[in-house]
Amino acid sequence: MSDTNAPKQLYELGPIGRECRFPVAEQHETIGGFLFCAKPVKLGLVYCNHHHDLSAVKGRPRGAPRQN
Ligand SMILES: [Zn+2]
Question: Which pTM was predicted?
Fold first, then answer.
């Protein structure tokens, strides 16, 4: 995997399920105030693998299967 995708503003992201919507940086001059990861995601997911793992660690729902 490469890191060629640059962070995007919210309005630049495609529909949910296409690009990672994890906020990676504050940028006050943009609408919403954040830049988003925008890496490709697996079908049906909101976050890329990396950020999916991060969010799962932070607030893993009870009984949710672990993905390794
Ligand atoms: Zn991401």
Answer: 0.70
Q: If you measure from the C-alpha of residue 34 to the centroid of ligand 1, how many angstroms do you get, rounded to a whole number?
A: 13
Assess whether pLDDT exceeds 50 at residue 44: yes
Query: How far, in Å, from the CA of 19 to the mean position of ligand 1?
Result: 8
Whether residue 40 lies inside any domain: the answer is yes
Contact 34, 12 (CB under 8 A): no
Higher pLDDT, 12 or 1: 12
Q: Is residue 27 part of a domain?
A: yes
> How many angstroms is it from 5 CA to the middle of ligand 1?
10
Domain that holds residue 22: 8-58
